[in-house]
From TrEMBL:
InterPro entries with a match to the protein in the record: SurE, SurE-like_Pase/nucleotidase, SurE-like_sf
Ranges of residues in domain Survival protein SurE-like phosphatase/nucleotidase: 4-189
Keyword Nucleotidyltransferase listed: no
Gene Ontology MF terms in the entry: 3'-nucleotidase activity; 5'-nucleotidase activity; exopolyphosphatase activity; metal ion binding; nucleotide binding
Cofactor: how and how many bound: Binds 1 divalent metal cation per subunit.
Protein name from the UniProt record: 5'-nucleotidase SurE
Binding, a divalent metal cation: 8-9, 40, 98
Cofactor(s), by name: a divalent metal cation; Mg(2+)
Major subcellular location class: cytoplasm
Key words, A-Z: Cytoplasm, Hydrolase, Metal-binding, Nucleotide-binding
Lineage: Bacteria, Bacillati, Cyanobacteriota, Cyanophyceae, Oscillatoriophycideae
Record localization: Cytoplasm
């Protein structure tokens, strides 16, 4: 298959090398376009007021991989690849393997998920891969699952256009409990801003805090409650596969507003 791979951890991240090299060794045609530095938590930001530069990378990856580092955001990388660097659209857009989870509300901030979502916006099925740990450097299981998933899609494509958000537990392959199709959970954060003073005596702030997982589990209007959330399933050592879309319309909210008669106010 023809695959475009990006990330938000940058060109030198172990995760993207594990993903690109594993799939190249499996015989897929790989193009890598990713940020030239760490661009985590940039969401779906685009570069509009500065030029975007791309530099061809001749080393780092498997010899058959065509790779560029890009000065822009993860979404910029995918846009640039599809619009300027590739001669035709890929079969799939992949993003990752992110160093750290993208669960629940994390996806709203995630550059990893946004890079994959850019593929969906362009009509290309996409998958975001994350290793659910900031300390583990063992990407083998996640890369192996990515290879299996791509092989599956080469035989049986996704039935409709979507983004799959995949999180892999940071355990040995034999300790993974299996794979579960999940719904988006909820992660709340206790945000704190540490006030500091730089060497010139000027005050600055550093965002810190911690995640509170499973504070509550939101119901989904269109799904039965027995479908686990990604947050819960990853805790139980399952690989989580959550289908996502970019349409954020609140169907219940539309009905509620119609009931309030807001469409008659003007």
């Amino acid at each position: 298959m023809k695959l475009l791979i990006s990330n938000d951890d940058g060109i030198f991240a172990l995760g993207i090398r594990a993903l690109a090299d594993t799939l190249a060794e499996a015989g897929h045609e790989i193009t890598v376009v990713c940020p030239d530095r760490e661009r985590s938590a940039t969401g779906h930001g685009l570069t509009l007021h500065d030029p975007i530069r791309a530099e061809k990378i001749e080393t780092i990856f498997h010899p058959t991989v065509r790779a560029w580092s890009c000065s822009g955001t993860p979404s910029d990388c995918v846009k640039l690849a599809l619009g300027a660097l590739m001669d035709s659209f890929p079969d799939l857009v992949l993003s990752g393997i992110n160093h750290g989870s993208n669960l629940g509300t994390d996806i709203l901030y995630s550059g990893t998920v946004s890079a994959a979502m850019e593929g969906v916006i362009e009509g290309i099925p996409s998958v975001a891969f994350s290793l659910a740990s900031y300390t583990s450097r063992e990407f083998e299981a996640a890369a192996r699952f990515a290879k299996t998933l791509v092989t599956q899609f080469s035989k049986q494509p996704l039935p409709e256009l979507m983004l799959l958000n995949v999180n892999v537990p940071p355990v040995k392959p034999e300790e993974i409990a299996g794979v579960k199709i999940t719904r988006q959970g909820l992660r709340r954060y206790i945000d704190t801003f540490e006030k500091r003073v730089d060497p010139r005596g000027k005050i600055y702030y550093w965002l810190a805090g911690e995640a509170l997982e499973d504070v509550e589990q939101p119901d989904h209007l269109h799904l039965p409650k027995d479908i686990p959330t990604d947050v819960q399933a990853i805790r139980d050592r399952y690989i989580t596969v959550t289908p996502l879309q970019y349409n954020l319309t609140d169907a219940a909210g539309v009905n509620s507003l119609q009931g309030l008669g807001l469409n008659t106010l003007w």
